[in-house]
Design brief:
CATH topology of the largest domain: Uridine Diphospho-n-acetylenolpyruvylglucosamine Reductase, domain 3
Largest sheet: 5 strands, antiparallel
Distance between the termini: 61 Å
CATH class of the largest domain: Alpha Beta
Organism: Mesoterricola silvestris
Order of helices and strands: EHEHEEEHHHHHHEEEEEHEEEEHHH
Domain FAD-binding PCMH-type: 1-176
Strand order of the largest sheet: 4-5-10-6-7
Protein name: Xanthine dehydrogenase FAD-binding subunit XdhB
GO molecular function: FAD binding; xanthine dehydrogenase activity
Shape: globular
Keywords: FAD, Flavoprotein, Oxidoreductase
Amino acid sequence: MFDICELHEPGTLEEAKAVLAANPDLKVIAGGTDVLIRLQHGSLAGSGLLSLKNLHGLEEIAMLGDGTISVGAMAPFTTIFRNGLIRERVPILCEAAVSMGGPQVRNVATIGGNICNGAVSADSASTLFALDALLKLETATDERIIPMGDFYAGPGKVNLRPGELLTAILIPREGYEGMGGHYIKYAMRKAMDIATLGVAAVCKVREDRFADLRIGLGVAAPVPIRCFEAEAYAKGKEVTLEVVQEIARLAVKPARARTSWRASKDYREHLIEVLAQRAVAEAVKRGGGCCAD
């Protein structure tokens, strides 16, 4: 038995937004793979819950008229990595989705919940950072669309305003079109483990040069980050092994890795360089380029 004071199960998004507006202290529960564990451990004892499980439509994945791919916040990770549109247009997101937890967890854990947890180890976060994804946030009276980078406020903290719900993740056409991508999760075991480091790279290669490159890191700082200096260095450079190695070295600079029981600071920084090089090289290959020696 969970120690909760009330449970709301609205049947529509409008009803959910109205309930949250009237009760902004409610804890929103989507798949429940994090919230229920926290309840069991007592950290949310006495909380009121707003369940989104009955909000049909928030799990939909679709391409909008301008080419933006909209991923509903209630889409489970299994749905994401099996979705034909995601597999065809944004396969790196499939890689991130299938690396999350195990089959039972992926069947119920949602991408919106993964983001709203604010966990630096969230497998979807570094990939969405690299894709320049946007978040659609709605209240009973308003909505706003913000970049992923504006959402994370610190470890386990996100910039959700009172009464606000994340309803969709938007991946603009320029974030994925013509891009090769690769996500690498480094963990102690292959499944059912939290990432020691996550590296996502997407790139566009034209005439053997980097036309665009974006690198997202998870568990490299208090929040997921982008490697802007490495990305700027790459633009226009010939795709060579030496250039990719320098990109990887520059990817370490924005990191604020720390020592924990999972890995030391020095080891995490070593992983960033090694895995960034591998991720970029594979992204180049998948984008139709070749990393010359």
